[in-house]
Amino acid sequence: MTKKEQVADKTKVSDIKKIRKKRSRRALAKRTVVFSAVIVFIIAIVIAIESIGVANLEIWFSDFNSRFVVGDGYPIETEFGEITDIKTVGGNLAVITEENISVYNDAGGRIKNEHIGYKCAIVNESEDGSRLVVYDASGTGLKVESKSSVETERKFDSKIIAADRAKNKSIAVITEAERKLCEVAVYSKSGDEVFRWSSGDNYALAVSISDNGEKVAIGAFNLNGAEYSSRIICFSVKNGKELYRYEIGDRLILFMNLLSDGRVSLITEDKAMTVAADGKSATEYDYGGRDLVLWERESSKTEGKSALCFKDNGKYEVVIIEADSTEYKKEKLDVVKVSDMALFDSTLYVACSGGITAVDEDGARTVAEEKNIGGESLKIAVTGKYIYCLTSKGIERVEK
């Protein structure tokens, strides 16, 4: 072997060693990255367990896995009794009957079928749309449900009048009381009582708790002979101090929502109102003598809009108002009947004779004709992609 060949061989061996070292370094780097990712994942799991608890982590995994439940698509028919309402929870369809709550994913797969167990169940969507608040209007039971399981369940000593859940998982509940007209209590996400108020002259019918659980607003009225007067009373949950009370006169509160900035948005029988955060003033939207037949607030939007449906001289008109009760959009509908409404992302969807109509800042348009959804829409529920329609034949789904 010549010297050139020897040098060439040595160069090849050196190159091979360099390549092997390079590959080893790459393999080590990959193993390090994988190991680091595993460690980060484990740390994340530990932090999650410490911050939200094992039970809530189990709910998270259960909710996550629910998207993979196989279904036969839409339309669907429930096998658990006559449907009384449909709602959304965690972006999925919730079907309510007298005895059950069933939840279906995008594929029409049934995620769960939960027996309610209440004689007179009231089912409300939470402010963030991730939970259903279910309570017995003729009893003492309350549940908070995710789309796949029950987050919490508790019993109270007295009959429940109303309840609300904050984004931070605090729960506010109005109950009857033995020696008072009513009691209002707030419970932290761990279930501890952090606030209680009772009254001997105010009967509370509505309650709303702020996103962070720091404030609670109570809608109450009292009777003086044949006359009654209503008011909003706002409290600090932390120290129990009354922040303000605002008199709204001889009208009943139909809906109330405490906004994160301290304002209270409410709908009454003749006006929509927004009470200022200091309780010293309010902006109003007067119905002008029109009959209010339906109202709806924007799903999953704490600072969102509200919608009102009026019937005047046999004609329907819908109005979308801002959080401060100023008018955003008004539209007359040339329809014979309005059955339901759903407000999502500043667009109002109206179930009416002929199909489903959408109303936004550009006007009104037909989204789905009655013949394409299996008949007259009795109830509707809206998510980011779909409109779910309850008809006499079942539940159909149409894209927005």
Question: Can you tag this structure with a few keywords?
Answer:
400 residues, 31 strands, alpha+beta, 4-stranded antiparallel beta sheet
How would you characterize the overall build of this protein?
- The protein has 400 residues and is of the alpha+beta class.
- It has one helix and 31 strands.
- The protein has one helix at residues 3-65, and strands at 83-89, 92-97, 100-104, 110-115, 121-125, 132-136, 141-145, 150-155, 160-165, 171-175, 182-187, 193-199, 203-209, 215-224, 227-236, 242-249, 253-258, 264-268, 271-275, 282-286, 291-297, 306-312, 315-321, 327-333, 338-344, 347-352, 355-360, 363-369, 379-382, 386-391, 394-399.
- It has a four-stranded antiparallel β-sheet with strand order 1-2-3-4, with no helix packed on it. A four-stranded antiparallel β-sheet has the order 5-6-7-8. The protein has a four-stranded antiparallel β-sheet with strand order 9-10-11-12, with no helix packed on it.
- The protein is globular.
- The termini are far apart.
Name the poorly predicted regions. none
Strand order of the largest sheet: 1-2-3-4
Mean pLDDT: 87
What percentage of residues falls in helices of 4 or more residues? 10-25%
Number of strands: 31
Number of helices: 1
What is the percentage of strand-forming residues? over 45%
